[in-house]
Structure formats: C-alpha cells, structure tokens
Write a structure and sequence with these properties.
Jelly Rolls, 34% strand, 14-stranded mixed sheet
Length: 308
C-alpha cells in the first residue's frame, strides 16, 4: 500500500471531502460523489481514511470554518490546507507543497495570469502559488519555485507574498521572488518592497536591488542586473561566476530527473553561461564538455556529476 501522501486515490478522496464540506455543493456534484464512492470498495476505504484524518484535527476546525466563511481559501484547498497546516505542526502527515496551490506549473512550464484585483503574476518552472484575498489584505503564498508580480494599486489592501519563513510586501511595484529549497531571493524591478524574514527586522529593498533570506536571517541588499534575473521569463537562465552546485540546483528545476553532485569540491567551480531552460539536458552536456566533470545521465531519471 502506498503512503497516504503519495497515494493518488487518497488525495482524490481528500478532494471529495473538501467538496462535500462546502455548503454550496451542487446536487449534481453530490450525485457524482455518490457514483464515485460506490464505484469501488477502495474508494470508500480511501474516503474513510480521509475522514479519520480530518477527525484527528479538531483543533483547527474553528479556524477552518472562519477561513471558509471569509472565502480566504479556495474550495479545493479548504480541507487540504487545514490538514496540511496542522499536520506540519504535529509531524503526523505532510502533503506535497504544490497540492494546496491555486496555481501550479509543471517542469519547464511558464504561466501568466491575472489576479482578482487586476495584479498580474507569471509563474516559472515547477512553481506553486496560493491566493488568499480578504477585504483587508491581498496575500499570496509561494509554496515553491519562482514568480514575477506586477501589483495593482490598492492602498486599502496591502499586497503581501509569503515565501518560506518570511513575507514580501509590495510598496507599489514589480518584483521577482524565487524560493529554492530553504532560500528565498527577492529582486525589485520597479519601486520597492519591504522584506520581513521571520524573527528579523524588515528590510526595504529598492529598485534594481536584491536581498535573500533563509531561517538564519537576511543578507544585506545588493545591486543586481535585473535583466539577468528576468531571463527565465524568456526561457533563459543566466549565470555569472555562480558555483556549479547552484547551477545544477537551478537546472534541476527544468528537468524531470534528479541531479546528484558526487564530489563537493567541484561544486565550487565558478560557472558563467546562458542556458536555454527548455534544453536542460543540453546544458548538462555543455558543462561536461567545458568543465573538469563527468555527467552520467541514467535514462533521464538521474544525472550524476563527478570529477573527471
């Protein structure tokens, strides 16, 4: 039997549970649910497990009800979001980050869309974003990946992006946020933003500057080539004297297989290059040709990089 967090049938059962919790569920949806649950004993078993999981989390139900009434959660994320938040705190069960998102991109995909207030978002490869708008705030959660934001003016409702252990508040702006493992990098293209890492004082970042933060705190703002930062929006990634380990980590976002660095000493080799994001395997071939490393690609599932 698969673990619950990777069992597609269990995830489907959770989504049905989310729909059935909605007091505006239609009669046709109830009929489709009845058809789904009666189609197989496995469906009924998965739904029972989903209900049991929800019943374990009585403590979050009042908050779930509040969010549902305010429509701060999309219907799909109502139950899934509540479960994931508490499960993470209790260490019981964790959903993949992207599962909770309102907007998701696949590996190598870019997607642009408008938000309800007229703001615009462009999501990069393998990214996930949730939209939690209320009457008093426009909050978005970047679960993973990269996003470019063009913010519509609304002084009554702050525009806040949450990424890892920190927030980025727009001060009338266009800006880029990249969430890679534990690190978040914020680049301001126009105007400024206020970056607040958890447990740290806010940092105002101006146009043409960049700051990064992780659980330990934030770096000092630094000037940056904003065109290079935005290259991913044109299916390019630009590296200038970037350590190989960071290059490989970035390329991994654009291919389906893992990239494993076997020799940490070669990870410090500086790389200056421009790669096509749609040709990540070709980028690995160029790295193997130009650097003292060997790349063994096992049928696209995993690429092993070692010293040559």
């Amino acid at each position: 039997m698969k673990d619950d967090d990777t069992d597609p049938l269990f995830i489907e059962a959770l989504e049905w549970l989310a729909r059935m919790q909605d007091d505006q569920v239609s009669a046709s949806e109830r009929a489709r649910f009845a058809e789904w649950i009666s189609a197989s004993p496995a469906h009924a078993d998965a739904y029972e497990r989903a209900e049991q999981l929800w019943d374990r989390f009585e403590i979050v139900k009042p908050e779930y009800q509040r969010l549902r009434r305010s429509r701060a959660l999309s219907r799909r994320s109502v139950v899934l979001g509540g479960l994931a938040a508490l499960a993470a705190a209790g260490g019981y069960w964790a959903l993949p980050a992207g599962l909770l998102a309102d907007h998701v991109t696949d590996i190598g995909e870019r997607r642009a869309f408008a938000l309800p207030d007229g703001s615009a978002v462009e999501l990069g490869s393998y990214s996930a974003l949730s939209v939690l708008y209320t009457d008093g705030e426009r909050r978005l959660i970047l679960h993973r990946g990269q996003a470019f934001f063009t913010v519509a003016a609304d002084t009554a409702r702050p525009f806040v992006v949450e990424a890892a252990a920190g927030t980025i508040q727009a001060l009338g702006t266009r800006f880029d946020v990249k969430f890679s493992e534990r690190d978040v990098t914020v680049t301001v293209i126009e105007h400024s933003v206020r970056v607040t890492p958890s447990g740290s004082v806010p940092v105002t970042v101006e146009e043409g500057w960049q700051v990064s933060y992780d659980p330990r705190g934030a770096t000092s703002p630094r000037p940056i080539d904003v065109e290079a930062v935005q290259a991913w929006r044109r299916d390019r990634i630009v590296f200038e004297d970037v350590p190989l380990r960071r290059v490989l980590r970035e390329l991994e976002r654009y291919r389906r297989g893992k990239i494993i660095l076997m020799d940490d000493t070669v990870g410090d080799i500086p790389v200056t290059a421009i790669f096509d994001t749609k040709e990540a395997n070709g980028a690995l071939a160029v790295i193997a040709e130009t650097l003292p490393v060997r790349v063994v690609d096992a049928a696209g599932f995993v690429a092993i990089v070692s010293r040559r």
